[in-house]
Amino acid sequence: MAAAAMLASTALLAGCASNGGGSGSGGSGGSEGAQITKAGVIGDQAEPGQPVSGGTLSFAGYSMPSSLDPTKTQPAGSTGGTEMANIYDLLVRYDADKQQYVPQLAKSLTESDDHLTWTIGLREGVTFSDGTPLDAQAVVDSMNRFTKNRGANSQQFQAGVKSIEATDPQTVTVTLNAPWREFPAVLTFGYGMILAPAAYADPNNFKPIGAGPYTVANFAPAESLELTPREDYWDGKPYLDSLKFVNIAGGQPRIQAMDSGGVQMTFLRSAEWVANATDKYPGYYEPLNVADVLQINNREGHPGADPNIRKAIALAMDPDVINQRAFSGDAHPTTKIFAEWSKWHNDVPAFTQDTAQAKQLVDAAKANGFDGNITYVTVNNPVSQAIATSTQAMLNAVGFNVDVQYTATITDMVKRLYVDHDFDLTYGSYSISDAVPFMRLDSALRSDSSNNILGYDNPEMDKLLDTAQHATTDDAEKAALQAIEQKIHDDVPFLSLGWGANFVAWKPNVYGAMPSNDGIMLLGNTWIQK
What we know:
Elements: H1 2-19, E1 40-42, E2 56-60, H2 81-88, E3 92-95, E4 100-103, E5 106-111, E6 117-122, H3 136-148, H4 154-160, E7 161-168, E8 171-176, H5 183-186, E9 214-220, E10 224-229, E11 242-246, H6 251-260, E12 265-268, H7 271-278, E13 283-296, H8 307-316, H9 319-327, E14 332-333, H10 355-367, E15 373-379, H11 382-396, E16 401-407, H12 410-419, E17 425-428, H13 437-445, H14 459-470, H15 474-491, E18 494-506, E19 510-511, E20 514-515, E21 521-522, E22 527-528
Helix pairs in contact: 1-12, 8-10, 9-11, 13-14, 14-15
């Protein structure tokens, strides 16, 4: 239950990113930045010249972590991933320009010819910040702890991995149960954040000891984090004198802090604020499929248990109405899982609004005893209200009676959705990048996933997810993902409302920030031009 709640809060935060301005899909947007459809660094910057040392870089993340233990939070870009990656480093990072995974803390990562073994070679002489060596056994122990404590993606890891062994002091051998092309992705998130043995030696006194470029000087959970550079970092002492993460709620206040010089970097998800920031700042842009989603409770006892009611919901909705009313036209509405820019885009049809057919399905359900009532649960802020009331109006127009209920806090929302399952509809985000298409679909749709908010339980979908996980070529993976999208279209366990993006903006005099998956930024070689 703890793992479910942890992942739930992340999904909600991602959704509230959209809810606080963070949506996306379709193809139209309000600015040049909104048209970008490839991950990478964008924006104009002067030639950097030689790096210089000194200064403090302040980073306003999307949501500050409440813990620095990677097993107790979601180590994603929007929810503490950058903060933790700069303490623990990552074994592997994703290079968007090369569109491949490259070693970071690791020296090498090699897949066997039969696709059943991944070998992680470690750099010689790397130490944790407490001076102890980062060797193969430390990596194995850290990964095993992550699995035992049910960190993010641990269900997929346990299902896919047969064994992890320290086959020599500098080599970790991971043996799989079946091929898993996306395995390197887990090494860019929590499994790749290696903890020193002393970090968790006392289960009641966790210490943030890692092999990254910085150590913790001061941490106020969910509020602020100050890091100090390591003299003995394996890639050289960082140029910065200090790295600070600060909590600034909302896209507009974060951009205002950038404009005033109060912060030098910030993480944005809102369509409106991403469009604003890409017009004036360089940064790392990462388009995401299914950044906005209407989630339907498929469990028995809820209207969504009836597939015809789910189809009626899909046919009643026009995502562009939500775009206009909630996002001022800056979002990218589409009901496709993989948008037109995606390498995984396919010819599965999108849903288009058909109110007449939707009404027929609702009327038929009422004739069979359905009372027409649906409960929509969401957090209470202006954008969430706009999404909720737009959805309510479109569904009421075809015969539903939608009761919008607002929760007082995110904690209440987590309990209601993920613990009590007390909702019929809610709004969120799956944030599926082209680099990692399988993992979040699996998390949302697999029958026994602790993060399956939908209660969707379909053995055929589980088999399709297995096929996608075990694909060994792009063509095979694309075919498998198309089959998954077709199954989503047929069953309507949820409805995609649009694609969106992460954007990590920085001031024009900031150089050397290195991105990885999901907007996680490695700042060991970052510096500020005077």
